[in-house]
């Protein structure tokens, strides 16, 4: 019995030391932080789904208003929450060679196939994918996609009209998510997902599953961050998500006879890459003895191709639908701004035979201002993350952080700081008037990130979002309904992006006169 007790005490003691082994990291460097607890660090409420990641970083931002940066522990991993715009600029742009990874996975090698995508992969694979995929988002390619966007926008109007006639309120969050999913299916994969007509379509269910954390996901995340080497077989993503995505891609490839179809969509571009067999280029990480970069190469197989399809769908689905629905929410509470949008839309469309087009959308300046302000008030990505790749001394300090430490840029907080924005709690589209944009600090407004790892699909996302907004506002007026909450509640079960709990219910009323 005594030996059993001694053994138990020994195990508990070893576990305690393992679960607290890094907790002197910030105190040794004189960086202010909240006291961590064993295993959880300062992230207990996050893992218990009591608060979102964006909101806990926001809390820390306001708790230490005089600091340039604040320490944090995600389980036993040290994080640094940045508050200084100049330091943020260094991390995202100037000193990018130190911070080129996002490091969403606790291990350097990523065992999950779908996480080898452009958004979450690192090092040489990221660099080569970025170089090869950038041509998919040129102005010419975007303009060629626009007829597909128009067809989805017209269908959005029909579905919205049906919903408005049958109910006193419409969940515009769900409506815009279905529109976004339909758009991604058409422009990305050449598939008619029919998500606008069928809210329970396979694509819509996949979108919900990707961004909602189940109990299984929470347990897997905690174990992988606490003891990553012991739980390599656990995955952040439900294995069914990976299986379904790979199966979908192989089906589309077979339909296209494993070669580009001439549609010039995202799948065609990936098929072109696949036909080349390997992607090669200068290494970001490895040098030859003479200092020149070594040549890096990767096999572009079915699984790597599926990972890019996964992120094209996932990144576009949640961010665009969140941004458009929240913009409608603000316009519902600011009818004077809404009317200005509608007047502009009417005026522009009148010059284009009342048809939405690529050029017409570019002329809707005030609509763009409202969308930009919506992204400031409620950024889809509440924070950005970068990992230190080699020892880095923070400028104007004697603090050196080690490889592996993660940097958090609290976008939500920066967008709401009265130090940088006049009355930030107010929705004021005029902040983004062309005469005022130059006055905005480039590294304080970050809805799409900044630097070499900024969102590659920024212009596509904006174009699709603005088309959806124009389609709704040209036919309908939006107003608060009985269920509308002025400040929507954040869904703590959604990790990567800011999402609202219970949707965004609004009253949609058909406009009496359409010019």
Automatic annotation (TrEMBL):
It is an enzyme of class 1 (oxidoreductase). It catalyses: an organic molecule + reduced [NADPH--hemoprotein reductase] + O2 = an alcohol + oxidized [NADPH--hemoprotein reductase] + H2O + H(+). It is a peripheral membrane protein. Its EC number is 1.14.14.1. This is unspecific monooxygenase. GO terms for cellular component: endoplasmic reticulum membrane. InterPro entries: Cyt_P450, Cyt_P450_CS, Cyt_P450_E_grp-I, Cyt_P450_sf, Insect_CytP450_Detox. Keywords: Endoplasmic reticulum, Heme, Iron, Membrane, Metal-binding, Microsome, Monooxygenase, Oxidoreductase. Heme binds at residue 455. Belongs to the cytochrome P450 family. It is found in: Endoplasmic reticulum membrane; Microsome membrane. It comes from Epiphyas postvittana (Light brown apple moth). GO terms for molecular function: heme binding; iron ion binding; oxidoreductase activity, acting on paired donors, with incorporation or reduction of molecular oxygen, reduced flavin or flavoprotein as one donor, and incorporation of one atom of oxygen. PROSITE patterns: CYTOCHROME_P450. Its cofactor is heme.
């Amino acid at each position: 019995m005594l030996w059993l007790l001694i053994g138990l005490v020994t195990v508990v003691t070893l576990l305690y030391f393992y679960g607290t082994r890094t907790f002197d990291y910030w105190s040794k460097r004189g960086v202010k932080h909240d006291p961590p607890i064993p295993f959880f660090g300062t992230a207990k409420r996050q893992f218990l789904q009591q608060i979102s990641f964006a909101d806990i970083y926001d809390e820390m931002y306001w708790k230490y208003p005089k600091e340039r940066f604040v320490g944090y522990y995600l389980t036993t991993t040290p994080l640094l929450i940045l508050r200084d715009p100049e330091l943020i600029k260094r991390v995202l742009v100037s000193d990018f060679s130190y911070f080129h990874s996002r490091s969403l996975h606790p291990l350097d090698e990523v065992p999950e196939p779908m996480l080898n995508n452009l958004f979450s992969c690192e090092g040489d694979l990221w660099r080569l994918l970025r170089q090869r995929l950038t041509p998919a988002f040129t102005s010419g390619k975007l303009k060629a996609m626009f007829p597909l966007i128009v067809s989805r926008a017209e269908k959005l109007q029909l579905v919205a009209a049906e919903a408005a006639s049958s109910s006193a309120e419409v969940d515009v969050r769900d409506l815009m998510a279905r529109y976004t999913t339909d758009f991604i299916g058409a422009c990305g994969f050449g598939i008619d997902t029919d998500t606008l007509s069928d809210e329970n379509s396979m694509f819509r269910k996949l979108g919900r599953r990707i961004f909602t954390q189940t109990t299984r996901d929470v347990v897997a995340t905690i174990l992988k961050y606490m003891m990553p080497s012991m739980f390599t077989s656990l995955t952040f993503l439900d294995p069914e998500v990976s299986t379904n995505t790979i199966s979908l891609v192989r089906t589309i490839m077979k339909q296209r006879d494993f070669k580009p179809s001439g549609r010039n969509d995202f799948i065609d571009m990936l098929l072109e890459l696949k036909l080349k067999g390997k992607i090669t280029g200068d290494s970001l990480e490895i040098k030859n003895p003479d200092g020149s970069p070594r040549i890096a190469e990767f096999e572009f197989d079915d699984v790597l191709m599926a990972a890019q399809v996964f992120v094209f769908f996932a990144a576009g689905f949640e961010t665009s639908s969140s941004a458009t629905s929240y913009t409608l929410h603000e316009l519902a509470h600011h009818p004077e701004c809404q009317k200005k949008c509608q007047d502009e839309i009417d005026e522009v469309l009148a010059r284009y035979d009342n048809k939405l087009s690529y050029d017409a959308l570019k002329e809707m300046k005030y609509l763009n201002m409202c969308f930009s302000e919506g992204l400031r008030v409620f950024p889809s990505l509440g924070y950005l993350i970068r990992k230190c790749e080699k020892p880095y001394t923070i400028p104007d300090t004697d603090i050196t952080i080690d490889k592996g430490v993660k940097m958090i840029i609290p976008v939500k907080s920066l967008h709401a700081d009265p130090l940088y924005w006049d009355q930030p709690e107010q929705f004021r589209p005029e902040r983004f008037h062309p005469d005022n944009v130059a006055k905005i600090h480039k590294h304080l407004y970050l809805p799409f990130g900044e630097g070499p790892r900024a969102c590659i699909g920024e212009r596509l996302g904006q174009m699709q979002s603005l088309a959806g907004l124009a389609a709704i506002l040209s036919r309908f007026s939006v107003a608060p309904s009985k269920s509308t909450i002025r400040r929507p509640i954040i869904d703590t079960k959604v990790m990567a992006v800011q999402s609202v709990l219970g949707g965004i219910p609004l009253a949609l009323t058909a406009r009496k006169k359409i010019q």
